[in-house]
């Protein structure tokens, strides 16, 4: 069995869970704004709390992965986490522009 170092395993799992959390954010957004027959006038308070928690976890995963990938000098994960950070902040701006 091929065993990798703990740092590379951390990068892999933080990348996996950051994609998973982002897909969870997209699924909640899709369920609230696309699937209902009547689009809500304002975002439900429980969804706002869930978005804050999920974006906080996503930010921790992305920034932790970025820091470790820079420290171990892994180009693939640096590009991956950099693009995840751009996607994360872009989705935040889109959500903020929809329901200020």
Structure description:
The chain has 100 residues and is mostly helical. The chain has helices at residues 6-33, 45-72, 75-98. The protein is elongated, with a radius of gyration of 16 Å. The mean pLDDT is 89.
Task: Give the helix level as a range of percent.
Answer: over 70%
Structural class: mainly alpha
Uncertain stretches of 5 or more adjacent residues: none
Q: What letter string, H or E per element, gives the SSE order?
A: HHH
Distance between the termini: 51 Å
Tally of DSSP helical segments: 3
Radius of gyration: 16 Å
Mean residue pLDDT: 89
What percent of residues are in strands? under 5%
Sheet bearing the most strands, described? none
How many individual β-strands?
0
- Globally, the shape reads elongated
Which properties best describe this structure?
mainly alpha; 3 helices; about 100 residues
Short précis:
It is built from 3 helices and no strands. The chain is mostly helical and 100 residues long.
Question: How is the topology of this model organized?
Answer:
Blueprint: H1 6-33, H2 45-72, H3 75-98
Helix pairs in contact: 1-2, 1-3, 2-3
């Amino acid at each position: 069995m091929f065993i990798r170092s703990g740092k590379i395993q951390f990068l892999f799992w933080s990348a996996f869970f950051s994609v998973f959390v982002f897909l969870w954010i997209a699924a909640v957004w899709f369920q609230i704004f696309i699937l209902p027959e009547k689009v809500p006038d304002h975002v439900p308070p429980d969804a706002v709390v869930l978005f804050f928690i999920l974006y906080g976890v996503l930010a921790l995963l992305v920034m932790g992965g970025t820091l470790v990938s820079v420290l171990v000098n892994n180009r693939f994960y640096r590009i991956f986490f950099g693009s995840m950070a751009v996607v994360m902040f872009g989705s935040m701006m889109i959500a903020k522009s929809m329901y200020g």
